[in-house]
């Protein structure tokens, strides 16, 4: 199928827009991944109060290239993926990925592959703000 949506955004991510982007009359399954900010991290001592995401200027291009590579491996799946920048509170969405296909197994596989490659390759950094006023940096989102 194709890549239908990729974005790096300072605005809240719209799950419904991602689902709609990968859905059409032949879609029998939509698999999604919602990456949310949690209040703890193995990289931090103490309670996480929020994250601040910073993207390299090439991040939009890299995200689109990642999605195209994953789409090439999963040709019967439509993909949509976006990642936040800026401050995201605990419980907020940091990444949304959706894969639409005629069949669930293909959608699940493609969605997982998309998220794993984004996490490994997107030039994105996060600053974890902690309840005691300190922070830690994590190299990739």
Automatic annotation (TrEMBL):
Annotated keywords: Transferase
Single Gene Ontology MF annotation: molybdopterin synthase activity
CDD domains assigned: MoaE (cd00756)
Enzyme Commission number(s): 2.8.1.12
Top class in the EC scheme: transferase
Short name of any one Pfam family annotated for the protein: MoaE
GO biological process: Mo-molybdopterin cofactor biosynthetic process
Signal peptide (UniProt feature, chain positions): none
InterPro entries, per database record: MoaE_sf (IPR036563), Mopterin_biosynth_MoaE (IPR003448)
Protein name: Molybdopterin synthase catalytic subunit 1
Gene name, Swiss-Prot/TrEMBL: moaE1
């Amino acid at each position: 199928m194709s890549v239908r949506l990729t974005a790096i955004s300072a605005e809240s991510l719209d799950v419904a827009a991602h689902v709609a982007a990968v859905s059409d009359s032949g879609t029998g399954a939509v698999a999604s991944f919602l990456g949310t900010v949690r209040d703890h991290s193995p990289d931090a001592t103490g309670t996480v109060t929020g994250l601040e995401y910073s993207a390299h200027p090439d991040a939009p291009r890299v995200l689109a290239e990642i999605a195209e590579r994953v789409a090439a491996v999963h040709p019967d799946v439509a993909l949509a993926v976006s990642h936040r920048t800026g401050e995201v509170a605990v419980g907020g969405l940091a990444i949304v990925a959706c894969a639409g296909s005629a069949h669930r197994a293909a959608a699940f596989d493609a969605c997982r592959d998309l998220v794993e490659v984004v996490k490994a390759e997107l030039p994105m950094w996060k600053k974890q703000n902690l309840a005691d006023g300190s922070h830690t940096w994590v190299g990739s989102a």
